[in-house]
Write a structure and sequence with these properties.
The protein has about 325 residues and is an alpha/beta fold. The protein has 8 helices and 17 strands. The radius of gyration is 21 Å and the shape is elongated. The two termini are about 25 Å apart.
């Protein structure tokens, strides 16, 4: 059994930041990810532009540059590859963690390929792998998509976008510009107030002009092969449809966390962590990145989650030095 000081689960920006900070403190770490490096970023829309500036995505004191004011998905992927190579991080991609057994200073981490021994474990799995579901009949149809990549495949088709936050608004706009017939459905009364200021008026104008059909205070009742049934303020209707993009958000993998012994506080809907060290309720296991916020996935992003690396590495280095 290969043995490490720390195993980091998740090779996203925060997981990489943890590995970098551990290496700086001479703590041996292995990073495991069930997908590729920065798998969540890879699954973002192909032509996505971040809402933030390059310096706020930096880890390991490696400068990030971009052609324009805000970096693109492609530029971010290149940057994190460069960082991983610079620090020569030990990363196993496409290796799923199946279970974590044992106790502090004597953990056993079983994966799809091997079993590893570790003194400490850091979980930085993000939340993008588990899409929120509509939970309606027909959601299992192939035409229902939870990850939007690009608009081209939907040209000249009837596409329904469910949701009204940034991802939904951007998808609806790109689909309209590419020649899809777009319908937007949202359970609230309007486009969400937190949609970015340069996106919100654009989608609202498309709706006002009738270029994008919108049903507010409405929700999906059933998805059929060639239509979608909606409940609207004017009653139940059936809308012609070829594809449904369910852009209603994502959640942490609570099944994995619960199996690991980590639960959410019923009041806060967040995991119980030591605010100074980010150690979880299971001694020796630390949480990093967005999962620290539990179901409040809009509280932690790369911009602030990246600092968890130094915070956790300091705590682990102190523990191992005892």
């Amino acid at each position: 059994m290969n043995s490490y000081d720390v195993i980091v689960i998740g090779a996203g920006p925060t997981g990489l930041a943890c590995a970098i900070e551990l290496k700086r403190r001479n703590v041996q770490a292995l990073v495991l990810d069930k997908g590729c490096l920065t798998n969540s970023l890879y699954n973002y829309p192909t032509h996505m532009t971040f809402f933030t500036t390059p310096e706020l995505l930096e880890i390991g004191d490696i400068p990030m540059t971009s052609l324009n004011e805000k970096p693109t998905r492609t530029e971010a992927l290149k940057y994190y590859r460069r960082v991983a190579e610079h620090y020569k991080l030990d990363i196993h991609q496409y290796e799923l963690v199946e279970s974590i057994s044992g106790e502090d200073n004597a953990f056993s981490v079983k994966t799809s390929f091997a079993t590893y021994a570790a003194k400490k474990v850091i979980i930085s799995t993000g939340y993008y792998d588990v899409p929120n579901m509509l939970s309606v009949p027909g959601e299992e149809l192939d035409k229902v998509i939870h990850y939007y990549r690009e608009p081209h495949p939907y040209y000249n088709h009837d596409v329904m976008v469910v949701g009204a936050k940034n991802s939904a608004a951007i998808a609806a706009l790109e689909l309209f510009w590419t020649g899809a017939r777009v319908t937007l459905v949202h359970r609230g009364p309007a486009i969400h107030k937190h949609v970015k200021y340069w996106i919100k008026p654009n989608i609202e104008n498309r709706i006002k002009n009738g270029e994008v059909k919108a049903y507010f205070n409405s929700h999906v009742v059933e998805i059929r092969p060639k239509s979608v049934v909606l409940d609207t303020p004017d009653g139940r209707i059936e809308v012609k449809n070829d594809f449904v993009l369910a852009m209603i958000g994502y959640s942490p993998d609570m099944k994995f966390l619960n199996a690991t012994g980590i639960t959410l506080d019923p009041a806060s809907q967040k995991p119980r962590t030591n605010p100074d060290t980010l150690e979880s309720e299971r001694k020796g296991i630390y949480l990093a990145g967005v999962i620290v916020a539990g179901m409040h996935t809009n509280e932690i992003f790369i911009e602030n989650g990246r600092f968890h690396g130094a915070q956790i590495a300091n705590a682990i280095a102190r523990e191992l030095a005892k």
